[in-house]
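Issue: ligand-bound run for iron/sulfur cluster - logging full I/O for the record.

Environment: standard queue, default settings, no custom constraints.

Inputs:
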Amino acid sequence: MARPGYMIPELLGRLGKKPVTVLYPYEKLPTAPGLRGKIKFHTDKCIGCGMCARDCPSGACVMVEFKGEGRKKSPEFNLDRCTFCEQCAESCPKDAIELTGEYELAHFKKNELIIR
Ligand code: SF4
Ligand code: SF4
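Outputs:
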């Protein structure tokens, strides 16, 4: 066991220095490049091929009926099941899926976690 008071020099050394922590959520640190956060779906690029849903390992991405024009099906992403593995984006032949750096995903309603 470390001797009592061994942290005192460290504490005294920090006096008068800028804090190493920030007042989250009022202050935020920049995210690391390549962070896999909230999915952004570019519906205008999608051709409804279903590759994203086929390769999703967690069942978070499913094909649903598309009510617009140009295709019959479109993916729906359920972020409460998503593991943010980025497989759907890698499988998409049209670059219609992007994982952004947004990491704050807490919501009060479950349907707010669905991306269409
Ligand atoms: S990031 Fe991974 S888990 Fe999430 S929808 Fe895409 S393939 Fe599925
Ligand atoms: S893989 Fe891409 S183009 Fe195909 S359905 Fe998914 S998002 Fe659309």
